[in-house]
User: What shape does this take?
Amino acid sequence: TQWSFSNPLQLSDADKDYHLTEGSVVQLPDGRLFVVYRAHSMVRDKNKTENWVKFCAVSNDNGMTWSEPYIMRYADGKNLCSPSSMSRLVMHSSGRLFMIGNIYGREYPEEMNRAYSRNQLSMIEIDIESLMPIEETLTVIFNRTASMNEDTAISNFTVNLDRNNGDILIYVPIVYAERLELSDSCLVNFRVRIEN
Assistant: This one.
């Protein structure tokens, strides 16, 4: 077996201060690869609108070369609002594409005071042709309750598909982010059924 390295993703000059990490990639029905990255910029920490973003890229040649990474936006050009945290892409057996993560829609919650806030786990469908999120499909899976500390992290989850019925299975640890002790965490799971 031989391995070769692909060309690395290159951010535009305007976006060079962003750090991309924790990518999630899927192969689309037409063979393209689509990747979504967690993004963070220390320079933009004070501007939540610019720091609550995800970057995407597309490859037409099995990952050897990639498009210039771009910020994930709705069809009207507004950014999808998501903090500096991982996301997971799911190519569902129905042929539909979903993204699961700490997604807040269009606007960052005013009460969130930092780019790492992970109080809500949501999923949204991504249009398979334009690769833009479909806003009306945004669904909250779990949200921090009033009794939970504001630094509760609902993140670092795993996603699988049930081979028998196509359900999306999500396993997520819920922890108090400022004090990572076993006694302060619990593991929960969710089963999401997609109706065609």
Q: What stands out?
A: The CA atoms of residues 106 and 112 lie 14 Å apart. The chain has a mean pLDDT of 87.
